[in-house]
């Protein structure tokens, strides 16, 4: 799966079936559980790539209702360190499939969550569990450090 294949709405994560390509919604409350395609019954693996969030409603739904911890990367397109960290977050999300999900919030396009959580510098990783912020870490970091941060606080 590539990042553009996976989306989110206010009810769940939208992922394509690896066999037939049909898009399936994985309800936030059931993330981490076995899922199967509604069309062909093929097992659908947990998301393994950061998911772009494009609305405050989506952000609120994922962070408050996800059964898995949610690691949010607050970033901006003009930020050099953000660009450097992006592939590292993708690698960490792939290696941590099923343990947590990763979201990307562009602070220029979606400033409300960044303002609400006092994002003062980017890139900023914020880990949410049960709708609450449990940890944050500023600055670019390699995949293994991202995984260690998430594992320590998840």
Mind explaining what this structure looks like?
The chain is of the alpha+beta class and about 150 residues long. The chain has a domain at about 45-154: Glutaredoxin. Helix content is about 30%, strand content about 30%. It is built from four helices and ten strands. A five-stranded mixed β-sheet has the order 6-8-7-9-10, with helices on both faces. The chain has a three-stranded antiparallel β-sheet with strand order 1-2-3. A two-stranded antiparallel sheet has the order 4-5. Helix 2 crosses helix 4 (about 145-154). The longest helix is centred in the middle third of the chain and has 16 residues, at about 80-95. The model has no long low-confidence stretch (mean pLDDT about 95).
CATH homologous superfamily heading of the domain at 47-153: Glutaredoxin
The share of residues in extended strands comes to 25-35%
State the separation between the terminal residues, measured CA to CA. 24 Å
Whole-number radius of gyration?
15 Å
User: Which CATH architecture of the domain at 47-153?
Assistant: 3-Layer(aba) Sandwich
Sketch the major β-sheet: 5 strands, mixed
Give average pLDDT, whole number: 95
General form: globular
Major sheet: order of its strands?
6-8-7-9-10
CATH C-level of the domain at 47-153: Alpha Beta
CATH topological fold name of the domain at 47-153: Glutaredoxin
Helix and strand sequence: EEEEEEHEHEHEEH
């Amino acid at each position: 799966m590539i990042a553009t294949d996976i989306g989110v709405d206010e009810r769940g994560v939208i992922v394509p079936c690896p066999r037939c390509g049909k898009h399936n919604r994985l309800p936030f409350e059931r993330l981490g559980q076995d899922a199967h395609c509604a069309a062909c019954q093929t097992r659908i693996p947990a998301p393994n790539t950061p998911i772009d969030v494009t609305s405050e409603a989506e952000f609120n739904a994922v962070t408050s209702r996800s059964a898995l911890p949610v690691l949010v990367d607050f970033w901006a397109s003009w930020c050099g360190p953000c660009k450097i960290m992006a592939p590292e977050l993708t690698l960490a999300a792939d290696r941590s499939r099923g343990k947590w999900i990763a979201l990307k919030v562009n602070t220029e396009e979606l400033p409300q969550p960044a303002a609400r959580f006092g994002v003062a510098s980017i890139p900023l990783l914020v880990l949410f569990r049960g709708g609450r912020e449990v940890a944050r870490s500023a600055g670019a970091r390699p995949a293994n450090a991202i995984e260690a941060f998430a594992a320590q606080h998840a």
